[in-house]
Amino acid sequence: MKASDKDSKPIVMSALGNRDSTMKKIQRIDYLYEALRVVLGILIAYALCLVIIVLLTGVDGWKDALYNFAVGPFTTTRRFAQVLSRMAPYMLVGCGMCFVYASGRFSVISEGIINIAPVPIILVMFNTSFGLNIMPGLPKIVNQLILIVTCGATGAVIAMIPAYGREKLGASETVTSIVLNSVCVYIALALIRNFAADRTQSFIATPNYPASIRFARYFGNTNLSEGIWVAVIGVIIACVIFYRTKLGAEIRITGANPTFAKYAGINTSITPFMGQVLGGIFAGVAGAVENFGAYNQYQMTMLTNIGMDGLIIAVMAKKHPIFVPITAFVLAYIRTAASVLNTNTKIPIELVTMLQAVIIFFVAAEEFLGKSRQRAIIKASRAEA
Amino acid sequence: MAVELLRMEGITKIYPNGFMAVSNVTFSVNEGEIHALIGENGAGKTSLMKVLFGLENCQEGKVIISGNQAHITSPLDAIAKGVGMVHQHFMQVPNLTVAENVVLGMEPGPGPVFDAKKAVRMTQEVSDKFGLGVSANSLIRDLTVGQKQKVELLKALGRNVKVLILDEPTAVLTPQETRELFVQLKNLRSMGYGIIFISHKLDEVMELCDRVTVLRRGKVVGHGDIADLNPAKLSKMMVEREVNLNIDKVKAAPKQTVLHVEKINYLDDYGKRVVCNLSFGVRAGEVVGIAGVEGNGQTELSEIIAGLIKATSGTVTLNSVDITRKSIADIRNLGLAHISEDRMKFGMAGTISVRDNILATYLSGDKFRSGQFIKMKKLDEFVANCIKEFEIACSGGSDNVKFLSGGNIQKVIVAREFSGDANFIVVNQPTRGIDVGTSDLIRRLLVSSTRDKDNAVLLISSDLAEIAEVSDRLLVMKDGEIVAQFTDVKSVSDNTLGEYMLGVRRMTSEEMGDLF
Fold this sequence. Notes:
The structure holds 2 protein chains of 2 kinds.
Chain A: H1 2-75, H2 77-102, H3 110-116, H4 119-127, H5 129-134, H6 140-169, H7 173-195, H8 227-244, H9 246-256, H10 258-263, H11 270-294, H12 306-316, H13 324-344, H14 351-364, H15 370-384
Helix pairs in contact in A: 1-2, 1-13, 1-14, 1-15, 2-8, 2-11, 2-12, 2-13, 3-6, 3-7, 3-11, 3-12, 4-7, 6-7, 6-11, 8-9, 8-11, 9-11, 12-13
Chain B: E1 4-14, E2 20-30, E3 33-38, H1 45-52, E4 60-65, E5 68-70, H2 75-80, E6 83-86, H3 98-103, H4 116-129, H5 145-157, E7 163-167, H6 175-190, E8 194-199, H7 202-208, E9 211-216, E10 219-225, H8 231-238, E11 257-267, E12 273-283, E13 287-291, H9 298-306, E14 313-318, E15 321-322, H10 328-333, E16 336-339, H11 343-347, H12 354-359, E17 369-370, E18 373-374, H13 376-389, H14 406-418, E19 424-428, H15 436-452, E20 456-460, H16 464-470, E21 473-478, E22 481-486, H17 494-502, H18 509-512
Parallel strand pairs in B: 3-8, 3-9, 6-7, 7-8, 13-20, 13-21, 16-19, 19-20
Antiparallel strand pairs in B: 1-2, 1-4, 4-5, 9-10, 11-12, 11-14, 14-15, 17-18, 21-22
């Protein structure tokens, strides 16, 4: 027995070694094509937009328009600050969506949370003696923590509604969350109008936030605020939770194969519930950063689309929070470029919506480049065999 | 000179994950011949047949049927060209009758109207013609496995095929049913059909077939007439080393009862009693085997013990704790490990890493945790150790499991379940579809974990050789009940076992003795 074991070992090992290196190569090809799909998707979408720009602006203006769209955001500090200021809530919502999406759920409640998350603390700010007399005197950092915690908590509570419906009652979280988004906007508006509106304004808005209860703007008066640091810390926390904690592992495993998760002893209804709640917390914090950073007063009267953008960011990042900063930057850049274009030429900002659709189309299309990927893999296998 | 019915020339098949399943294989079948296609699991037999049956396309090679080159695009196309296949897993609708299943896709009748009487008549004619003895009017779900297989044969024969592919047809049959099948296959051979018989059971191949082709790692490593060959030569061709089915094992010295089930019952979704008043125990230091034709309650039994489903009544005790109503996490923390028969569904998640797959079952315990945080260093060491000890062919713990072969995936599962602190392991079909080397490793592990670590193992398997080799005590399950117990496993013949499995005989409780 022992002798035959010894004899056979070298053969087995060499066979394994061969397969091993082939597999490594194939895995590399697989990753390469995953990345290629995202990059090519963005490039094709970009090229399509350029064509449309040329068609719309005609022969005279196209050079100018093209320049604005391609490098517009880099041309002034203000514009680049705009990219970064968009990026801040994007990173937070994007990370939150990674948790939702990785646990195998498709709740888009983040969209409504952006609007409703700041409302409770705003009511406290403008209606209670604590908010009117004590808070303005507190150190800025304490107030900012209060903002983050209350908005995150509100986000968590709101996110629980579609999550509970899904995990306990079997109602589709996608449908519930889409419907709830409108509910969030109007509840927020009703509360603001009745309890915190500034009657001197011609539209529904609160009075300006006191300077000590907000994220201060950078570079004079740009939209970029201290909130960007909240986003950076948020991404780090998201990565730690996602890759290094029990809950993160449970979320990833449950999303990858729910029956396997059940077999392994993971609670397969609490885990996706927690994934959605985490998504809500991150969306709530994004709401804080957006409302108390980029605005001087609460003035959101409709959905912001930040939540939906978060979904796109998570999809482009392949539900990995570690890639979220990159994909958030790409989307923030494209959106800013579109608004630069909008102000300087006659091209409408809606162009970017189409751009997004094309990107998502290619990123989500598993079989895009499938044939070429298959050929590369076959070649690699054959070279080894 | 025999007439060549079918010829496959230079077939090469590469799967999208880069696995070269079949490489430049040439293969032929003559009229009135049973041609065996043998090889280890993963040698490429099924892939080659999937190409022939139009389920997979191939990258190179051509198929010639009755002298004409054929391009087979789909199973329907294959059937139209005279190639039929009996799958390992039956493709039948359980709620329809035999006749309805047989005519599915070619329903007789005027226009869109279904002529049920004609369907029954057609089916019965074919059944009688080939002496299959299946009643066209019975419902599929009332049939035994052997009869279901005959329905598969009927489906092919009813469509006038000339070449029949049988993919491991005896895997689900009892010895008696196997013999019956062989009689029918020989009958078909004498009628001029060409039959491709896929198997790993050498004695069956020797008994039934005329010619044999041996595949290994996707290549033809030998072919010839059965008359010139013997099992020893064939097994040498099939595997690179002589298979040593004899596992050296010390006589078991069982200690206290670790697992005990008491009068458990389970009713399935249709209200059928699948597990019936079952009571038995497994002691520390022994392997208890459960033999039985598949579908006699073994799956449900293992899932009840593992906590995946809850027994309708009765109690399950593990290490003196009643676990009947406990959660899977609690049961695992009490000392359970479980290798499920359906490894793609319950054993692994393909899109995450080997490390996460191993981590999954340890999350509820505190082996790799301090508070909510995972001890990454300790986990990485553990995973690296598993990969080394179990010879898992991967480049590291961060590889996605979907890139591994079936045998290596099973190694990941086995490494996970056996490296923990569990003292009771329920194992269901651990070597099905697994290559010989890995199977051997798993069987040795089952035995050594009871001898060295005093674990208790419950092994459920339909591989009689395996169960006879590994078990210290053997139970036979039939219709959700235990019908026999053998304490001297080696002395039991396949025939005796088959009679108990089929329900021809059953032991009284006195004959069985103490079930612990």
